[in-house]
Amino acid sequence: MPLYLFSSPAAAKLATGPHASLHRRRQFLFRVPHRPSRRAPLLTSAAERPAGRTMATADTGASTVTDSRLRATGVKQALISLSDKTDLANLGNGLQRLGFSIISTGGTASSLEASGVNVTKVEEITQFPEMLDGRVKTLHPSIHGGILARRDQEHHLKALKEHGIGTFDVVVVNLYPFYDKVTSGAISFEDGIENIDIGGPTLIRAAAKNHKDVLVVVDHKDYPALLEYLEGKQDDPDFRRTLAWKAFQHVASYDSAISEWLWKQSNKDSFPPSFTVPLTMKSTLRYGENPHQKAAFYGDRSLSLVNAGGIATAIQHHGKEMSYNNYLDADAAWNCVSEFESPTCVVVKHTNPCGVASRHDILEAYRLAVRADPVSAFGGIVAFNTTVDEDLAREIREFRRPTDGETRMFYEIVVAPGYTAEGLEVLKGKSKTLRILEAKRRRSGKGTLLSLRQVGGGWLAQEPDDVTPEDVAFTNVSERAPDARELSDAKFACLCVKHVKSNAIVIAKNSCMLGMGSGQPNRLESLRIAFRKAGEEAKGAALASDAFFPFAWNDAVEEACQRGVAVIAEPGGSIRDQDAVECCNKYGVALVFTGVRHFRH
Predict the structure, then answer these.
(1) What confidence tens digit (pLDDT) does each residue in 183-238 have?
(2) What is an annotated GO biological process for this record, any one (predicted)?
(3) Is residue 34 flagged as an active site residue?
(4) What sign results for the dihedral spanned by CA atoms 408, 409, 414, 420?
(5) Which domains does the chain have, with CATH numbers?
(6) What Å distances lie between residue 247 and 180, 207, 406, 466, CA to CA?
(7) 209 an active-site residue?
(8) Catalytic residue among 144, 156, 209, 317
């Protein structure tokens, strides 16, 4: 006599109907060894056995119940399936102490058993083995029925009883480490695909949807709160909803990583038709740009930003907690100083570099950067692209304000790629509030990163402005060509001006910013501000503009020439470019076109 496993009365009927032969070919019976020492209590009384859940035994033909699938709806059950098994033993023992039967999968079950927890494996519930190299474990009605069934719906409970399915009260799941795998180095497309979890997100979503009846946990940090909640015998809907939100957010972040990775595997376009930015709160802030605005700081877990460096991943060694404006200013300073290869110091105030200097002697570079605009530098952010040692730290701590020679310079933040132990100790002595940040140099984002900016109702996305002077052809368009020193000054000024808010003008000489004008509605006013700061040192210097000059005669170009600059660098592209050329020729000033604009709004 053929041997069949009928999953329900309906299945039994189908097996005797007109399509019986087809149905029989699809039936499988899997015997599971009896393991009483590791099994949670099972139903054994005839009264507890739902109709239609019998099968013939091969040796006696007697009708028995597949006990492993007949869990009572009233039995407390927890399903645990984890990739990250941190604190698993504490969780399993805690749930067992509270009277839960533990259902688990593969390696999770083995770890629980090794910790002395009684476990029933999922295949004992489903009567179906793990298959397809682990791709199919929990995708089964005996699992998802017990998760999704609403306890306040009689017909749901009736259906569970009819099919011998028990309810789950707790679901604890985390996912294959897809993010870690695809960011750990070279990985084949096939390996990436195999690390996409399917059963895990399905379990999480099911439990989160039915959070009124099922507690879902995706983070090991929530295990203590879960156990406390269960011990308290409370029914706080906010706790359940918070866990459900966290579960859905966990899956959403996971899916966004997969989506980003798949897009980059098959597309060269930097701009996908749609995408999700996975943000994780790193801290709440005292306030936003102003005290009446609430604020928080989020880290971006996009795959493209892994090992990209920047202020978001900086380590704070000392000082007061970072504020909203601190992050903006520190980011501006770090982005600017990271552009330079030689030892450089950048001083920033309100996101604008007010002092920049490059020298082999970093102490000299620091002094020159501060002196470029000592009034603005006071209370600003100081950034270095070299390690801060004891000598530099002592200079930062003791340096007097150039305007009076007495007052010690005050700074909000010092940021550098590293500190010696002695340097860090000395710098900490400057002020209890001085924020000391250690940041990783920003990686070039060409072709990989997107710069995002919010506008009302939407976002603007663009590639970052990663063009450097080495990428630019400085084309001389005047009668007099710049000499080597003047060209070097022009390149330095251009590297600075791309970090200044438009309209932007920078005057520089000998790898040192002398003056800058920023944020003015007209370029002429920015130019005048820059010259006022540079003073007499502007003679023989280089001047860089972030965009072309719309007018030359009796305007910015002629005024710059009259003030004695040696060379002007600008993108060109104006319909009045020839006026600029003729004006420079009249005064013997070299004019170079870069063909690259550096607007910054």
Answers:
(1) 887 788 888 888 888 888 999 999 999 999 999 999 999 999 999 999 986 667 79
(2) 'de novo' IMP biosynthetic process
(3) no
(4) negative
(5) 77-265 (3.40.50.1380), 280-438 (3.40.140.20), 471-593 (3.40.140.20)
(6) 19, 9, 58, 38
(7) yes
(8) 209
